[in-house]
Design goal:
The chain is an alpha/beta fold and 221 residues long. It has helices at residues 15-18, 35-48, 73-93, 105-113, 115-129, 141-148, 182-192, 208-219; strands at 2-7, 23-27, 51-55, 100-101, 133-136, 153-158, 198-202. It is globular, with a radius of gyration of 16 Å. The protein starts with a strand and ends with a helix.
Length: 221
């Protein structure tokens, strides 16, 4: 089981937090992040021996990539390619490669529900990074498109997010959306482990460091 963190979205992220994870999904300018933050996280990956990945999104900094954006598919593909290429360039300067990609926020959910949009995401990513590992929901259009394109696909679970009865995430503006108690998060992680290849904790979740430590401890018992 791999642990992954959405990184480069806040200025107060610490290496103590990063060190709890195997993979860092690095914001690359669409919803958050810039050259300085990307470089900072990549440098941490190099020091800690972590796998660096791209975390592209709709080009929507105003809403942190958390709303569906009405954008032409060609323009979206170009934006995703630009975001991933910017991260790749900084990684290459440090002798690193971009190992994987995980779409962010609304794009993650929209692409998983729409095969044509999923194909745009995969095409935009591959134009910059080639064949890399895709991280996404356990089933859906994103998985199907990625696998059809020859990508390895990792099924993701969220240790710090609540779910509805049908397994979908509770929207962030509703009660129960975030799990901020470390014990509760570790219990959820253990429940998710059998149907997930990777578990995510969000860096902006309150108590993220304690949650990450508890989740890692639960998975190695």
């Amino acid at each position: 089981m791999l642990l992954e963190l959405d990184a480069g979205e806040r200025d107060d992220e610490t290496e103590a937090l990063y060190a709890q994870f195997d993979l860092l999904n690095i914001a690359c300018g669409g919803h958050a992040g810039d050259a300085a933050s990307m470089a900072r996280v990549l440098d941490a990956c190099a020091r800690l021996g972590l796998r660096a990945g791209a975390h592209p999104s709709y080009p929507d900094r105003a809403s942190f990539g958390r709303r569906t954006l009405a954008i032409d598919h060609a323009a979206l593909e170009a934006s995703l390619t630009q975001q991933c290429a910017a991260l790749r360039s900084l990684a290459e300067q440090r002798g690193l490669t971009i190992d994987h990609v995980k779409p962010h926020g609304a794009l993650y959910h929209d692409a998983n529900a729409n095969r044509s949009l999923a194909d745009v995401v995969v095409s935009g990513v591959m134009a910059a990074l080639g064949v890399v590992t895709m991280i996404g929901p356990p089933a859906g259009a994103l998985r199907d498109s990625a696998r059809m394109s020859g990508m390895l696909y990792l099924r993701e679970g969220f240790a710090d997010r609540g779910t509805r009865a049908d397994g979908t995430l509770i929207p962030r503006d509703q009660p129960g959306a975030l799990i901020t108690d470390a014990v509760e998060a570790s219990t959820r992680a253990a429940e998710l482990a059998s149907n997930s290849d990777a578990l995510c904790v969000h860096g902006d979740t309150p108590n993220a460091l304690a949650i990450a430590r508890a989740v890692r401890a639960a998975l190695i018992r």
